[in-house]
Amino acid sequence: RRLLAGETQFRTAHADFLLDVGFSRTVELMVQCADPTQASIGRYTLRIFRPGCTPQRPYFDPRKKVCVNFCSAGYYRNRETHRCSRCNENCKVCSGLLDCNMCTPDTADYTYAIQPDGKCMAIANHLFRRYRWGCAGLAV
């Protein structure tokens, strides 16, 4: 927009600052006049706080973006961060990152098995070894 003195304002700037549940962040802004004869600088400090989850729903679910008591499939209740954290790869139900209780369901291409270290391993199903398929060529 145009001001009376002939000065033109800068276009509106916008920035996102993500803030996790139960944490705070300090944002410092410095505003300087565009006119060099008006050398005043304004400094602003904002302390922003996002409240944590309640004891009734102590875990934050990042997918649903709400506080919950039970996490969705593929996530576990992380007691240290009070968040629903993602289970390890190929794990459907877990109680910790390296403590898988149930792997994802088997598919035609892969069978999933829990390993001694608590992870789920994908084992490729090779149908050509299981069944002896024959191929016959036909020419006319």
Model description:
The chain has one helix at residues 127-130; strands at 24-32, 41-49, 59-61, 66-68, 75-78, 83-86, 91-96, 99-103, 110-114, 120-124. The strands form five sheets. It has a two-stranded antiparallel ribbon with strand order 1-2. A two-stranded antiparallel ribbon has the order 3-4. Strands 5-6 form a two-stranded antiparallel ribbon. The longest helix has 4 residues, at 127-130. The model has no long low-confidence stretch (mean pLDDT 83). The protein has a domain at 59-126. The protein has one helix and ten strands. This is Furin-like cysteine-rich domain-containing protein.
Q: What is the tally of helical segments?
A: 1
Series of H and E elements: EEEEEEEEEEH
Helix content: under 10%
Low-confidence stretches: none
Mean pLDDT: 83
As a percent range, the share of strand residues is 35-45%
Instruction: State Rg.
Output: 28 Å
The profile of the biggest β sheet is:
2 strands, antiparallel
Helix/strand-derived category reads mainly beta
Write out the strand line-up for the largest beta sheet, numbering strands in chain order.
Answer: 1-2
Terminal-residue CA separation: 80 Å
- Total strands: the figure is 10
Overall 3D form: elongated
Protein name: Furin-like cysteine-rich domain-containing protein
Organism: Zooxanthella nutricula
InterPro entries: Growth_fac_rcpt_cys_sf (IPR009030)
